[in-house]
Amino acid sequence: MKIRTGFVTNSSSVSYIVTMDLEIVNTFLDFYGDTENVKTKGALRMAEALRDFMLEKGTVNYLHNHEIYSYLMEFADDDGTCINKQMLEENGDNSDPLLMNEEELFNFIRGEMIYDKRLSTMLPGFGATQVEQY
Prior knowledge:
Layout: E1 13-21, H1 22-32, H2 38-57, E2 59-63, E3 66-76, H3 85-90, H4 102-115, H5 119-122, E4 126-133
Antiparallel strand pairs: 1-3, 1-4, 2-3
């Protein structure tokens, strides 16, 4: 991972409301749970980690007879807590979610899934709406 050594003045932070429909997430996890596909196993690991996080820290809401969990997630996009596959590969670092520790996995989820807007297409039952950029 590259570490900045110079003075940086244009740091940027973002906020997203992350949502989860637990029934849809669990259906996804159950349906693909026995897969041998490595890419799908990585998605399952991210979905399980994010599901557990949302159950622990999220707020449950009821919208149109659906139980929806939500969480306001705030992070900087340039301090290493928001990374994507391209950044990892350019630095020669691991980009496989199956081999990441929990901190690396959540940095990857923030960067690859939320910030790069892949969450709802890669992990059914989850969504993210950007609510602030500063």
